[in-house]
Amino acid sequence: MSVSTSRPTTLYGGQTGRRVTVRDIAAAKERGEKWPMLTAYDALTARVFDDAGIPVLLVGDSAGMVVFGHESTIPVTVDDLIPLTAAVVRGTTRAMVVADLPFGAYQAGVAEALHTGARFLKEAGAHAVKLEGGRRVLPQVEALVAAGIPVMAHLGLTPQSVNAFGGYRVQGRGEDGERLMADAKDLEAAGAFSVVLECVPAELAERVTAALSIPTIGIGAGAGTDAQVLVWQDMAGLTPHTAKFVKKYADVAGVLSGAVQEFAADVVSGAFPGPEHGYR
Question: Annotated catalytic, 123?
Fold first, then answer.
């Protein structure tokens, strides 16, 4: 049996006929190549993002707000995210699909983290998992990686800890920045293949990026990280209210509203359905 060793010449938009892997992510860091990541929660939009060349898709616990209508990520469960993750995997052929481990699914210890991580790989087909926290989750990261489950770490504003933070605030200023740096180095040593830096000062994110051999993925962390991630509904203008760090690249809400109004008007007037929409 021959083993393919091909790698994409670029992570974004590269074509190899196979899934992006953690080795490809590491190679992009070595090349100094920046790359994009988006969230995804269903097969159809995941297919669009995959076809567009997005190399990594995150099935985030942000589904709590953008899919399920909660005010935070806290209520999301493993059983909520597994079918969403499976749908994203089925809708893609190239992107690495990373599943968020939701609040309460790994904090209790190694055994819980392994059980949850295994469910996402076995039941949903995820290629990696993401969890929040620094030093306190190092045993979970080490155990997951040792079990063959790639781990994306997450530091800075960790939404699952929003109640402890007292709200959604920038993290890592002053002495907290040095603790974040230490956490990032510890997570790398524990085996994480990348780390998300959310809502941290740009200067700190740039220093962390330079200090690590694994990629950093920024969200509200300035331009100095190796990659950038956004919630796709924020990026595409579907979310009514977004954070300062979001750039809207489309007005999907406006397009959808216009289409709905045109459909409704056609139904009311009798213009739809027309003869071409029926059967004989």
Answer: no
